[in-house]
Amino acid sequence: MQDTQIYDVLRQGLWIATITSTPILLAALVTGLCIGLFQALTSVQEMTLTFVPKLVAIVAVFWMSMNFMTETLVSFFHSQIIPLITES
């Protein structure tokens, strides 16, 4: 395997990681922003108020996007990794 192939697969792998993590990160960002705004408006400074809703949102989004993530990772594995393994 050549260096260019390694770098190309690494670049594609990092892009797949970015694509699959985006829904969860966006859910955490939006939930944190809403909770932060709520805390600023009401002056309630409770740590569990930020943690529990973020956790619930992350788990819900992960559960909803699990099929997309699995299909994306399996497709990457079948189209990029297996041909490199069989080529060697």
From TrEMBL:
It comes from the Bacteria. One of its GO terms (cellular component) is plasma membrane. One of its GO terms (biological process) is protein secretion. The keyword Membrane applies. It is found in: Cell membrane. Keywords: Cell membrane, Cell projection, Cilium, Flagellum, Membrane, Transmembrane, Transmembrane helix. It is a multi-pass membrane protein. Its main location: membrane. It holds the Pfam family Bac_export_3. The chain crosses the membrane at residues 14-38, 50-69. The keyword Cell membrane applies. Belongs to the FliQ/MopD/SpaQ family. This is Flagellar biosynthetic protein FliQ. It comes from Thalassococcus halodurans.
